Amino acid sequence: MLRATFAGFSTAFSSVQANQKRLDIVGQNIANMNTPGYTRQELRTSSLNHTHPVSHYMNGAETVVGFGVHMDTVAQIRDPFLDSQYRNQMQKSSYSDSLNTSLTQLARFLDESDISGIRNAFTEIQLTLNDMQDASKINDPIYESELRTKMQTLTNMLNDADRQITKAEKDEFSRLDGTGTNENGAVQEINDILKQISSLNRLIKDDQVFGQPALELMDERNRLLDELASYIPIEVSYYKDAAHDGKDAAGNTNTQAALNEIYHLDGNGDPFAKKDWPDDLRVEMVYQDATGATQRITLVEGTIGSGTDNIGSVEISPTLADNDPFDANKINLTFNSSKYFDHGNASGAIKPSESVVFEKTATGITNQFPEHSGSVQSSLDMLWKDGSTPGVSDARGYGFYRDQLDKLAESFATVINTINIKGSPQVNGADDTTQYLLANKDDGTSKGITAANIGINSQWSNGTVHVGKSGESSNDTVLNLLQAMTATYPDNKFMNGSFANIDLNGNSFGDFMNYTSTILANDTYSNQFSLKNNVVVLNGIQDSRDSISGVSLDEEAANMMVYMSAYNAASRLMTTMDEALNILINNTGLVGR
Amino acid sequence: MDLNTQETLEKFATVIRELTDTAEYIARIEENKAIVASEKRHQLLDGLIQDEQAQILKLRGLEQRRLRLADSLGWKSLTFRQILEKAEPEQQTLLQPLFGELEHQLKRLENARKNAEQIINTRLHEMQVILARQQGGSYDNTGNINLNSPVHAKLQNKYV
Known about the structure:
heterodimer, A: 3 domains, 3-stranded antiparallel β-sheet, B: mainly alpha
């Protein structure tokens, strides 16, 4: 049987159309090669042919030829594996970057390598005591006044360091919650991104249902997903909605109703074509519960429901204004899932929404993110982890450095006060416990001293209390104070073991400050190295992603030539068909003409 | 603490220090692996891997020694945290910073290892993509490359 007369023209025409479309796409790619977030596009095609004979009247020996090319869709060239790797690495880089900001802020006042700080204040006190040790100077009020001034300087520095830590904590909190500041915090950014992704999900699906690929909207959604990954650990998955996932209401996959969700069925119930229904996009946040088990909460669930039904949120409490005096341990983050979601469920089965609370309790942290996963985790680590949080892999946050300063302030006050009380005249045969030099400024006592409240005893300032002069020699107390400045703690021998319980990790007061600065410097150095490494790897993955999804001018130019050649060939095919037709019509069967 | 125990404790502390140094060295190799793989200088990977294998053998040897010494100090099968809880105050003062530094370096190693693994997986994936292109493989719906699919797997039947 003869082939349809104009079939070859259809083939050539489809080829001309497809190659013209390809050239248009090359133009679009080149035009957008510098557009942020743009993904390279390509035309997906397939061959048009018959799957089986369609006519009862065809010869058995029919040789079937295809009918040209079908333009399936204009698609983006993306690699989900690389997207996932990129977002994973983005979380790590963002964690290190955010941690670097926090540690740098701490280093401004705790790193004393370039500044005269607390370490220097201890040295000054030691020098003054050195001057005072001469018995003739003990009774000179000028020297005592100088000692008091030096002590005052030290206590002011400790107070200031504590204030700076509180300020750093508040700044960290502002990075989480931007309420009351002129910048959005992570919480506001996450909520904003979730809203945009949810809205884009609906727009993209609406477009795709009507055959529009919505590629630019998908670019925008991918960009938002990358950004979201810098805040929290996320997993992105694509799925068919409940009405098109190939499962019936009971979750079965082999029933007629289930098949009908995926295929067009003929009169006998046999599939004859696959339905083309767009995918939905789900965003889940990954976290670990108190037992360390990995859990997920759905933050965006495709296009389910209406309005904001498909979107989750994050809340933070209390706000900075309500949290006065600021206490980082009171902060809690609540992640709410989308109102509806059906992950892991049979089609149509909808669970009620759920919430996950991240908070610090007496027994540890309720839920937490996996290690190195986003800037929110970095902020929470800095705010919550103090090197001794039970049950968690611990980091050294603001709490650790405050504890170090508190330990230093309390130890120093205890040692100085104990020595002075022992060196002062006894009252009724007992130590006069009012003869302390350093006090808790909040209540004026020598109890509960921290870096925040350490100060000079007001009784010392007004002359009621003095540096002790009792003992075998009037300078015994000063000599003891001097020895206390150079002793290392715990010290089992000094003052008959009075300071055996003071633990400064085997350091003197001044060295303990150095020790703390060194810990901070090590943490900062280690994190900076980690940041550098993470960024190099991130750039490596970005290169890979660009090599697939980015526009390469060389590649587009080569494609342009290939498509133009194909266009020419298809046109030439038409001319050849025309010549063949001419022979058929004008030169066939007219013998001898 | 008797003299013998003191000596064993010193040896134990030395092994912990050496473990820390070796872990740091391996972490640095892993970090370099991540960097060279990111910058596509793959020819350097072989040398790094060989160096790393030697260090891993050293690490194993040190770990064996650590276990033997822990055993003789009465800390058999105990974690570092349990050892610190059980140790005397003087031993604690000696060991706490050493354990802290070792833990720190092991965390660094773990992070570096994950980074190196991630970028090497990415590069392997790239190679698979290139191979798939040459062999006419295709992606499935989840983005995984189906290397076994023949060229015609890309073709679809359309009804006309």
